[in-house]
Amino acid sequence: MAAPVWILTGPSGAGKATALAAFAAAGAEYVDNLPVDLLEGFVVLPRESAAVAVIDARQDGALQRVRTAAGARVLYLDARDDVLLRRLNDRVRPHLAALGRGLSAVNAERELLAPLRAAADVVIDTSDLPVEQLEARVRSLLHSDGASRRLTCTVSSFGFKYGPQLEADWVVDTRLMANPFWDAELRPLTGLDEPVRAFVLDQPEAKHLLQQLTDLLGWAAERAAARDRLHLHLALGCTGGRHRSVVLAEELAKRLRDKELDVDVRHRDLARPDPR
Beta partners for 75? Predict the structure, then answer.
């Protein structure tokens, strides 16, 4: 099996330096700011260990020539605009000077990176991700890519009130069903507690949605595997990310595992403070 090759990209301040260091610490060969025109040659080089190349907005207009080479996978790091702006204030990035200042520079950089974002195999939102967790996610990618060619489905929950789920390939709104938050006894609990689970799963809408998503993801997994894609992320959102979306993410993951799919479950906003 050929050693995996990753393209690491994303806007300034999203954590590429941290991720690149994690790749290197895990034994991967790496090149920072690889010229776009050298990408295909980099991918086909004979190698025994994983490799990663950083391609980002430092190459400006050359990004329009990016054509992800066969065999390379794209890891796109992202973060909320307010987080990027705060991180950008901490250091000078000369390549951003031509893009403007503040939010206009962030938006311009996102536009430059649009071709790579569209091609991303994995997106990681680093907005609230501690450094050690980002490093662990990078190590996990290297391990899974090198050890198996099976598709991994990530099913996550999140709260719309805390912003979009930047990592997701697909987003499903679960606010169409009754909210346990309005039950005083259920409000302090989460979707990992049995009373909340029962409240959500007893609703006909939940049963219908879960069946539809199970069928759809089963079909999508077959198509993704046929195209040699190894990662697919579906995010379920509710208002606060503590009740409905958590229950449905856990149940959907169970059903997908019953179909012998590899499934990773994450709850982005579950640990936020009790709304009381």
Answer: 8, 122
